[in-house]
Amino acid sequence: MLLTRASDLCSPYPLLPYSKNPSSSPTKTLTRSMRTALKLLRTISTFPHSHHYHHRRRLLLRTLSLLHPPTPVTLSFSTTTPRRLSPFPALSTLPASSSTFVEQLAGEAEEPDDLDLSTNGDKERFDFDVCFGSVDARRFDVPSLEVKELEELPEQWRRSKLAWLCKELPVHKPATLIRILNAQRKWVRQEDMTYVAVHCMRIRENETGFRVYKWMVQQHWFRFDFALATKLADYMGKERKYSKCRELFDDVLNQGLVPSESTFHILTVAYLSSPAQGCLEEACSIFNRMIQLGGYRPRLSLHNSLFRALVSKPGGASKHYLKQAEFIFHNLVTSGLEVHKDIYGGLIWLHSYQDVADKERIASLRAEMQLAGIEETKEVLVSILRACSKEGDVEEAERTWIKLLSSGNSIPSQAFVHKMEVYARIGDPMRSLEIFREMQKQLASTSVVAFHKIIEVLCKAREIERAESLMEEFINSGLKPLMPSFIDLMDLYLNLDLHEKLELTFYQCLEKCRPNRTVYNLYLHSLVRVANLDKAEEMFDQMYRNVSIGVNARSCNTMLRGYISCEEYAKAEKIYELMCQKKYDIEPPLMEKIDYVLSLSKKVVKKPISLKFSKEQREILLGLLLGGLEIESDEGRRNHAICFYFREDCGTHYALRRHIHDQYHEWLAPFSKLTDDNDEIPCQFTTISHSYFGFYADQFWPKGQYVIPKLIHRWLSPRVLAYWYMYGGHRTSSGDILLNLKGSREGVDKIVKTLKTKSLDCRVKRKGRVFWIGFLGSNSTWFWKLIEPFVLDDLKDRLRAGHILDGMMENQNISFDCGSDSDEKTSFSNDDLS
Is Transmembrane a UniProt keyword of this protein (predicted)? Predict the structure, then answer.
């Protein structure tokens, strides 16, 4: 931003500062100001982390304000009338084209950047042509925004104060800015603050302009200004600040107006530019509303950018976006826009990843490609092979294979894997093995996926010797992960009652891989089947104590079956009590038997009761909510669902998510529950929508916005703090502990005071909309001693206070020794805007 202002200094027509001395030369004054500004700029660039940085930056901004004083402009009403929301948006009248005042004030309006969402070379992703993109010279119709000329104001004092505000506000922190604005309440009007906001946008201080606008909204004299909100939203979106842009976008909708085409476009691009969770879904929503609500025709570049984002994820994650991709394709065709070859290829790629491939749709897309004169690329042919593998279509697979061979390109390993699966579907595992050996000859290396697939095929065909030979070859190759193939082998041994081989494979798996619940369950099932209950009890206890493995309904049902078959009724009752406590379902064949067992001790089978949280579940949920957990509510706020999200690249979240999944398994939605075939915990899962969560939704998420509850001081138990730390906290490289928190200053102040009553001193740092509560030095040790009993065993070494491990945690770059948006110990200024 400073470089932008430096370039402004070199403008051929700079605005000259006013001088009180009429004999002074404007050229000399300008030269001195430019020389001062450039000197400050060089100092800031050379020493960006100097303690004089902020002071010199303020001097530079004031110098720039002298070089660019508020520009005189004319007051008139916009000739562009904003459109009201219409029940038939496609028939609504589009805004008329007109030049904008802000374009004169802030320079030509920038065109939105077309995204270049490049993908890596992973064959599980769709590979784009390097020329995939487009150029659309059509400009947006933007409503004009005009403000009064300072010289036309009759009051000299008003002109002076407005000029002073334009100079001072950009150089102050948010808290000080709000205090300055609050002090002007007695005299400012909407026209005055509109002028200040426009001036801030002119000098590219868009963040300051946004804060001025948000302050205006809270004043009693405020009247909604469509042109101002549109221009400010566009600038926020161009800086990729999608949350602020969305806030202004929603303000327009709440007034019953249709946002401008530029706002729709820029907000969609801003969402696409962010890797944050849920931004792609929001981009799709805005794009759809742009067409259905606004009646606009999006640019070709926006169609292509959104489509590329949909298929840039691995196939398993992208397959859910098929309907959205088809909508984009349909809109391209109906709008008469060019359909790039990668749009066809991407659609076929998405269809090939569906559980049931739509062969007719794939055939129609291929026919359209042929009519358009587009050749089928290697990626398209591999996608067709993948679709053939879903149903065992050998004839189409062989035709596609011939095309791959004749293309002259090297055949990817994924194509061999799909061809192996085609023959496995029709019950010809030996042909699949031949294809695997052929792949080894043609390619320099064998992929992990190919080993997984051929071992799975041979295990299902019960080809023991060949499967064992390939497994040994797989282990010797040094490739990983080995776990899926170990599970296939153990499942084969269990089905064939080869329990000794299963046991040897189990211990070999523990040596080579991280412990896995599926592997333990297979071994537990084998021990129960041979009636080795002592060893089974040992394994079950080991699973129960290790939170990273844990037990589930399958483990408990296996042990219950073993105890009942061996007439160990007392132990069967204990397992039954555990299943009732954990709310696990008992398998139907065991229900009659457990009824008989309980009748011997004159007990009755416990009937299912209404679900309720235990004390432990309540405290865990409170800690997760403080760490950023979200709750979604229906329109009437009668039913609510808890959305658990864990970062895939975070080691702490990897260990925590299995534990949380087990804790709330009875509340999870059907699609979030595990199956016997898949024991991998997803990074995101949700509960059923239920009224029981209403209390937590009202406390933490009233009106869909996160707040800190007023009664939070009553709930900060050691377990709550421990789960807050594990879910939303970090440990710095120096061993200090940081807790992440959103909400108001008053809520954070209440938490800090409560911690102080527990003899926990902390410091608070605000960074954007997030507060960081820091336990530094010896305070981190006291905090750790308080929560250590409730931290998961697998995470204690990772999270222990004062225990330094290189590269253990993410670098949060939070310093409590320098100024920022806010840095207080126990209290905050009420004048600041949260």
Answer: no
